[in-house]
Amino acid sequence: MRNLPQPNRSTDRATLTTALSQYQYKGVAKGYAGTAEEVTAVLAVYDAYDAARGVANIALTTPEMDAALKQALHDAYDQTQKRRRLKHVREELFSGVELCPVCGIDPPTELDHVLPRSAYKAVAVYVRNLVPLCHLCNHHKLAGFAEPGELPFLHAYFDQLPDIQFLHAEVRLQDSTLSVTFSIDGLDAVADSLGDKLKNIHIRLNLSERYLAEVNIFLASQAISLHGAYAAGGSQGVKAQLRAQAQYEIRRFYRNHWRPTLLAKLSTCDDFCNGGFIPVFNVPAEILRDAFGS
Ligand SMILES: [Zn+2]
To answer: pTM of this prediction?
Structure first.
């Protein structure tokens, strides 16, 4: 899990002015004819959203706003789709976000309304209420985080994640089989609510299982490099290779991404580094001969 930079608000007024204006569709006027005062009123709700750091409150649930205006904002979200007049909202939010901020596995394909569109119509097209997620994370979030009393979902723009390692991997090598488990831990020093929230999401979204499904494919991509490191420097060479790859991936992705977390843990596993990785990968001998000559 990671934070995403807060989207810039410089185009809010222009976006709302477009969202609250009429347009022609097959010769018929569609949309809502809003006023400059209404746009200003919606911007005030956005300010209230920022002040509350995206946490639901009465000012956001029932802003003093005409029902028709709220419905127009709700409906305007559909116009963020491809080729429609608010498509820039979607394009800007996806821009530069390579991986879903929650799982770090798949690219984001959907926009999640942090405060649901149906209940919080006024912020339906507010950029800081829209977080790009992958389909699976969004699906799980929609299926289980809206009930009263539930811990809320991570707000990737407002829940400031601590700069510490809180995703952990355990690795065990037995009978040429590598087993890996992931967990969230080490958050005792941060606010309880945030630590509990991260643990809850890790469990509810089956992130451990989803990482495991990726581990074999990912490690297979490291197999030849590890053989090369072992041929050149033995177990110390393998450890150095894993540490360097982990450092690179932290910079390429982020600290609590599952890949550098796994690589760093493997670099401390003597059984794995001291040739134990060889039967795990089972690279055909002729490939190794071609590569390393022995
Ligand atoms: Zn995801």
So the answer is: 0.91
